[in-house]
Specification:
The chain is an alpha+beta fold. The chain is built from 18 helices and eight strands. It has helices at residues 10-15, 69-84, 89-99, 103-113, 118-130, 145-156, 160-180, 196-200, 219-227, 238-251, 255-259, 290-301, 323-333, 339-352, 357-364, 372-376, 385-398, 411-416, and strands at 2-6, 23-28, 34-39, 44-52, 55-64, 266-267, 272-275, 284-287. Strands 1-2-3-4-5 form a five-stranded mixed sheet, covered by helices on one side. A three-stranded antiparallel sheet has the order 6-7-8, with no helix packed on it. β3 and β4 (44-52) form a beta hairpin. α6 packs antiparallel against α7, α9 (219-227) crosses α13 (323-333) and α10 (238-251) runs antiparallel to α12. The chain is elongated. The two termini are 61 Å apart.
Length: 419
Amino acid sequence: MATIHKELTAHQVNAIEAPEQGQLFVRDTMLKGLALRVTTGGSKAFIVESWVNGRSRRVTLGKHPALSLKDARKRAREVIGQFASGRDVVAERINRKALRVTLATVYQDYMASRDLKPRTVDDYAKVLRLAFSDWQSKPITSITRNMVEKRHGQMGESSPTSANKSMRVLRALFNFAIGKYEKADGSPIITDNPTRRLSATRSWYRVERKQTLIRPEQLPQWFRAVLTLKPEQPTSKADVVRDYLLLLILTGLRREEAARLPWCDVDLQGKTITIRDTKNRHTHELPLSDYLHQLLSQRKEQANGSRYVFAGDGKGGYLVEPKRWLQKVTKQSGVPFTIHDLRRTFITIAESLDIPAYALKRLLNHKSGGDVTAGYIIMDVERLREPMQRITDFILKAGGVKQGAEVVNLTKRLKTDKR
């Protein structure tokens, strides 16, 4: 940055050439504080620099030639006078801008700062669209506790679950805003999260977590229906859905994790599969039981060059949720179920077999949270092979696919199972 001190004239302002690098400041000796700033690109602008309340401030008055030197001096005197009286016009401008930050802006900044799964992104967008469409253009500072409490109650009349979910999203956005947006003095534009009203008044709706699963005594009917899924025509995906459902109930994988499993992450020689795009972003490696190894080996022979283990006709090239086939299995077996019920079934049966807690967490790819001990345990995939085989054997025996299994009553376990 280069600096020149001289009395500015209209002729000099026009004649001053751009610096080769950096910026050139030509400070007016006639009016202290006024300067002409020239960039390497030749852009010229009048600025005012002064001190107010112990802080150095700079205000851009306007660009030349749109703003003449005469008018620049006039504006400069006004600004210098404001500074001299103790009025910080720069801080006022910063505060006005900060206090105009809308809910939509907070949402955009929040999403840009996070590495979220596509489904989470879609969920947040849906909440903003359905629950807070009329709030998006409001400054976030104008959203009050009373507004939050009223909106939560209105939404709860039709769907307590959606009401809670929407307010959890709003809570996250406000927490982000508290840390992100500041006034000129560095203080946050908001200091209180209005969703705290719901906790203070105990207004969050009590929504019981779904605890449905396939009970051991229902497994024979379910397996018979699944194993009879066979292609009736060349374009049928019955066998793909069949093997997909079997993998889910025998591994506890989430539906997307299994559906998007590529062949490059299936090691048939080492008898493992690797899930890379997981919910918690931690790569998840699992051993294959004997049954699953055979199932995937047979599927590999039929892959026909497909990238994915469970190829589908969708845009992504992998299987999307096969609702029609689930309905068919339910009708044939008399066992209603969802895809996530298969994960709950795996978890509950694994726990009933007294699989060690740390091994169970590792099988499910659950975070250890504040468990310090878990952070020191290195659970190699080979140490999971025996527990995985035990779980598979039990499920297959209970389902009549293998001989001999003691059917346990899981009803009591479901009452306390919070997974």
